[in-house]
Amino acid sequence: MNLDEIKIYLPKFLSAESDRELFKGLKDFPDNIDERLYTTYLHDTKIIYQGDGLNNLLVVNLPKSEIKPVPGIILSNTCDIDLQNERNFPSQIVYAPIFSLEKYRQTLLNNSKKTKEQITDHINAIKKQEITQIFYLPKFDGKLEESIVFLDRVNNMPNTLIERDKISSNRIFTLSDYGAYLFLLKLSIHFTRVQDKVERKSIIK
Question: Where are the domains of the chain?
Answer without folding.
Answer: 35-191
